[in-house]
């Protein structure tokens, strides 16, 4: 089952060096989610072949422009492209006022339902779930109210071992029960044991997105044992005083966070405009956490 992340933008504050403000796509088994929507996001969607009208949910971490200024344009384009399906939007409470004001004065009337869900910057909350995935928001530590997001795959049912049942003539109505771990008994008394005829599904996967934040204990419990952790790494550690001043993290701190929470893999991003080349940022993070990669625009990362 597909669970992957596409980086649309990985720059902090301003677009520079052909890097764009923050935006990411999550593809979970063809359910398409957008995290943050900086300037130019819809152009990046077009560039990398993602149809905007396939996006079902949008998550905005906070109200600094590099994380949401592409949103109204995207919503308007969806309207022009004939969207009619509901769109769920999650973000800080004032976000809906910003959107409504812009739509009002441009006399834009959306032909689809925009369903807004305010996020809580003070406590962890389950904000979305269906049969296959759940999304939790959690507070980060930045200059304005900010949340991170964690995507957790739900445990899948076991799968039938086909070669074992090939000649058993098991009633088809038993198969979903066996997948759920239930033993079944045929009318002639034959017992079909789930443990013998199925194999466990792979362990559920998880992805956590930590946008602008100081590296801080308060959110560590929300990202424990995550498979793939995206953590902002705006500065190198020689700029620690600037990171503290602006409520950002250094690459070294991102590596420390990944190690402390038991993440399997770390993805760096939100790079300062002062860095044209990024190799040194990667090397610094690897001093603390070896399994680290740079987020690169246009690249898909498996969770």
The CATH superfamily of the largest domain bears the name Ribonuclease Z/Hydroxyacylglutathione hydrolase-like
**What is the CATH top level name of the largest domain?**
Alpha Beta
For this structure, the CATH topology of the largest domain is Metallo-beta-lactamase, Chain A
The helix/strand series, from N terminus to C terminus, equals EEEHEHEHEEEEEHHEEHEEEHHEHEE
Radius of gyration: 22 Å
Number of DSSP helical runs: 9
Q: What fraction of the residues are assigned to beta strands by DSSP?
A: 25-35%
Largest sheet features: 7 strands, mixed
Description:
- It is a single chain.
- By secondary structure, the protein is α/β, with parallel strands linked by helices.
- 22% of the residues lie in helices and 27% in strands.
- A 7-stranded mixed beta sheet has the order 6-5-4-3-2-1-18. It has a 7-stranded mixed beta sheet with strand order 7-8-9-14-15-16-17, covered by helices on one side.
Write a compact overview of the structure shown.
The protein has 303 residues and is an alpha/beta fold.
Give keywords.
seven-stranded mixed β-sheet, 27% strand, single chain, alpha/beta, 303 residues, globular, Metallo-beta-lactamase, Chain A
Topology:
Layout: E1 3-9, E2 23-28, E3 31-37, H1 41-47, E4 55-59, H2 71-80, E5 87-91, H3 95-105, E6 114-118, E7 125-129, E8 133-139, E9 147-153, E10 159-160, H4 162-165, H5 175-179, E11 184-185, E12 191-192, H6 194-197, E13 198-199, E14 206-210, E15 228-232, H7 240-246, H8 251-261, E16 265-269, H9 279-286, E17 292-294, E18 300-302
Parallel strand pairs: 3-4, 4-5, 5-6, 14-15, 15-16, 16-17
Antiparallel strand pairs: 1-2, 1-18, 2-3, 7-8, 8-9, 9-14, 10-13, 11-12
Helix pairs in contact: 8-9
């Amino acid at each position: 089952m597909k669970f992957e992340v596409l980086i649309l933008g990985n720059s902090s504050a301003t677009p520079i060096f052909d890097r764009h403000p923050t935006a990411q796509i999550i593809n979970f088994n063809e359910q398409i989610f957008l995290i943050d929507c900086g300037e130019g996001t819809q152009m990046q969607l077009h560039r990398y072949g993602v149809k905007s009208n396939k996006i079902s949910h949008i998550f905005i971490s906070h109200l600094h422009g590099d994380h949401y200024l592409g949103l109204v344009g995207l919503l308007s384009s969806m309207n022009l492209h004939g969207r009619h399906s509901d769109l769920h939007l999650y973000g800080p409470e004032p976000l809906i006022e910003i959107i409504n004001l812009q739509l009002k004065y441009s006399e834009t009337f959306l032909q689809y339902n925009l369903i807004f869900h305010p996020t809580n910057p003070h406590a962890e909350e389950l904000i979305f779930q269906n049969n296959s995935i759940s999304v939790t928001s959690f507070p980060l530590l930045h200059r304005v109210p900010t949340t991170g997001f964690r995507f957790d795959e739900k445990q899948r049912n076991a799968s039938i071992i086909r070669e074992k049942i090939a000649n058993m003539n098991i009633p088809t109505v038993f198969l979903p029960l066996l997948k759920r771990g239930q033993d079944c008994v045929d009318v002639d008394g034959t017992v079909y044991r789930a443990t013998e005829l199925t194999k466990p599904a792979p362990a559920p996967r998880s992805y956590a997105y930590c946008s602008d934040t100081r590296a801080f204990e308060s959110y560590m419990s929300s990202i424990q044992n995550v498979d793939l952790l995206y953590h902002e790494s705006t500065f190198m550690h020689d700029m620690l005083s600037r990171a503290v001043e602006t409520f950002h993290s250094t690459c070294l701190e991102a590596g420390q966070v990944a190690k402390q929470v038991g993440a399997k893999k770390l993805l760096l991003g939100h790079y300062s405009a002062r860095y044209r080349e990024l190799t040194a940022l990667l090397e610094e993070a690897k001093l603390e956490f070896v399994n680290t990669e740079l987020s690169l625009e246009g690249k898909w990362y498996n969770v």
